[in-house]
Each structure stands twice: as C-alpha cells, then as structure tokens.
Design a protein that fits this description.
The complex is a heterodimer of chains A (267) and B (103). With 267 residues, chain A is mostly helical. Chain A is built from eleven helices and nine strands. Chain A is 45% helix and 11% strand. In chain A, α3 crosses α6 and α4 packs across α6. The longest helix of chain A is centred in the N-terminal third of the chain and has 15 residues. Chain B has a single domain, classed as Immunoglobulins (Immunoglobulin-like). In chain B, a hairpin with a 2-residue loop joins β1 and β2. Classes of the chains: A mainly alpha (267), B mainly beta (103). The interface between A and B is small, with 10 and 13 residues.
C-alpha cells in the first residue's frame, strides 16, 4: 500500500511540472508527510523523553514522575492537548514546554540558566527537555485538542494572544495575521494556514513537535514561534515567555475539538 | 549501550512485515563542523535479523544511509508470538540488539 502511495506521489510531482496537475505540489508534500509520519524518528525521541521522565536526576535526585501537567502529578496521557492552561501553583498560564522546564527546575533542582542555555535543538543534538516535550506530546496521540478556557487567566491569555497575532511591527510592518490571517495564502512552496479559523488553526498545532529530517533533531512550537519572529525580523521573543504562551494559546484554542495526531515530521 | 530501536513486526497473511527505527548519528565522515574540523565517520555497517535461530535479513550499510535510519523488510515463515532479534554494529564496533514479538 505504501509503495503505491509513494508511486502516486512521484507521479503527481511529475505531472505538476506541466501545470496541468489535478493536485497542487503542496498536496504532494502533505502526502509525503503522511507516509513518512507512519514510522517517524520522533518516536525515538519519545522513548528518550520517557526515559528522562522516569530517571532520577539533578541536585534533588528526583525523576519527573511527580510533575503535574494539569491532570494531576505524573499524569502524562492527554496532558499535551490540554495545554496551555492555568496552573494554580504558579498562578500563571503555561504551555507544555514551559511547564516541563518548570518541573525540571522545581522537582529536580536543575538551574533554569543551564536548561535554557541551549533552548532549541541544533546540529549538536536535541536537548533533554525537548525530548521530554516530545514524549509528553506523544502521550496525547489521537486525542482531541481540548485547551481549557474556564479560568479567567486562560481567557485573558487567549485575548492577549489574539492581540499579539494582529499587532504589526518590525521593519516589514508584519503581524502574524499578515501571513496567517486569511485563506489561500502561500509563501514560496509553503501553504500558510489561516490560524484564525478552526481548520487552519489545527494545522498550526499538528506536526509539532516535529522531527526535522535535515539535521535529525526535534523542534517544538516554542522554536516555531521564535522562528516566526525571526522571519518577521522582530526582536527575538524570550524563550518560555508569556508572549509565546499567549500566541500558542490563541492557536490551540482556535483548534479545539480537532484531532491531534502526535509528533510530526518536517523537511 | 546505544539507544534502543523501535521495532514493529506484523503478520500479514503468510508474510511478516518488519519496520525498524534505529537511533544513530550516521556521520559520513565528509562533513566539517563550524570550525572546519572534519567530523569523523560513524555509521552502522552491518544489520542482522534472526528468527528462530535463522538469519532472515542481513545488510551491509555505508555512508549513504540517513541519520536515524528507518528500515522495512518482509520475510516468510514467522508466526504470531514468535520472537525476532535485530542487531546492528557500527564502524566503532558499538552495537545494539533488540527483540520484538511478531503481532
């Protein structure tokens, strides 16, 4: 079945060159991604993250098994699709990566500066906290996105995210909405999902965290927001800041009710 | 020991389809780091799969195989519940063996 899909994808790409294709080249990329996601190297990082979660570490020699991701201490299943959410112990809304790093600091006694020295993966590899986020995300595979909006701070975070989404700044006078605020936009060969609508917003959530084939490492949605800001020539957003949580919350709430398929794969 | 492989073995009719994800850097030896120093070659050289003591798959790999390689192959004669052993050895003589149950 897989061979047929690959042959169909190749045939489609060949046809696309004649501009008479019935499917667009970007549809073919999606077919390619669907085939590749079946045996995704991200699973190797899910396994690594699970091992990290269960291993005692740091000055407090503790594992992450008491980490509360919103569903109770140690409950990982289903937690990723219910974040960002309000955490009473810190009085703040946090996204998954922010909460994982918080647990590493509070439960294991690791230093925030040490963890965030390399916040994102690079050719040196995938940092531990990114593997943990991948594990947490994998435990929400095939579950419906259900980001809560019950707490007033959760609703505030959504509204702040919405404001940031439309805020034009930087030398190009771009906002997120410039690229992601309407249907049918594309940059080069990349379709730009309309993140203000449910069917577009889910495209911003699906596939993250994602295994990037060029480099062989995991990238999270914190990285993606950082890269969006870079592409807009904005100042770099502070890693794990309220700003990033807010725009992640805006997208995730817009995608509520739809199925999350687990970590994805990128070029 | 290296990170474990993820192995899926499913019986479809009379054929067992095996899919494996291996965690390995697979450095070709041709790359240089940011300071210009060549990164030494480090890649899986042999892969073997055995079922009931018999080798059902053997491969000799080189530097063209991608990082964190994915391998898929089929063989006949397996039954549900049987064990399948997969092992790899790399050019630094490191190795990894994992077992999976045919489902």
């Amino acid at each position: 079945m897989n061979t047929r899909l690959i042959l169909a994808a190749l045939a489609g790409t060949a046809l696309a060159g004649t501009a008479l294709a019935q499917t667009s080249p970007t549809d073919e990329f999606q077919k390619f991604r669907d085939v590749m996601e079946e045996d995704n190297p991200a699973e190797l990082f899910e396994a690594r993250g699970e091992e990290y979660w269960k291993t005692p570490r740091g000055p407090k020699n503790a594992s992450l098994e008491q980490c509360d991701l919103g569903l109770g201490p140690g409950v990982v299943k289903g937690a990723y699709v219910q974040m960002p959410r309000y955490f009473a112990d810190v009085g703040q809304v946090m996204d998954a990566e922010r909460r994982v790093v918080h647990c590493m600091v509070t439960l294991q006694g690791l230093k925030y500066e040490d963890i965030t020295r390399q916040p994102f993966s690079n050719d040196k590899g995938t940092p531990d906290h990114v593997s943990v986020v991948t594990y947490v995300a994998g435990e929400s595979r095939d579950m419906k996105i259900a980001v809560p909006q019950a707490h007033p701070k959760e609703r505030d975070t959504y509204r702040i995210g919405q404001e940031i989404f439309g805020f034009r700044a930087g030398p190009y006078d771009f906002a997120c909405s410039t690229c992601h605020g309407a249907d049918g936009r594309r940059i080069r060969m990349q379709d730009l999902p309309n993140l203000t609508k449910p069917e577009g917003a889910v495209k911003g959530i699906l596939g993250w965290p994602g295994y990037r084939m060029t480099g062989g490492f995991m990238l999270t949605s914190q990285w993606r927001m950082n890269d969006c800001f870079r592409q807009q020539r904005f100042p770099e957003p502070k890693y794990l800041s309220d700003t990033v949580t807010a725009i992640l919350a805006y997208q995730a709430v817009n995608a509520n009710g739809q199925l999350y398929r687990g970590p994805g794969i990128k070029r | 020991m290296a990170d474990p492989m993820k192995i899926r073995a499913t019986l479809q009719g009379d054929t067992v389809e095996v899919r494996v994800l291996m965690a390995h850097n697979m450095e070709t030896g041709a790359r240089k780091d940011s300071s210009g120093t060549p990164i030494p070659a480090h890649f899986i050289q042999t892969v073997n799969a055995t079922h009931n003591g018999k080798v059902v798959f053997a491969a000799q790999w080189g530097t063209a195989i991608a990082k964190n390689p994915f391998l898929q192959f089929k063989f006949k004669g397996g039954a549900k519940g049987d064990k399948l052993q997969l092992s790899w050895t790399d050019n630094k003589n490191a190795s990894r063996t994992d077992e999976a149950t045919i489902g």
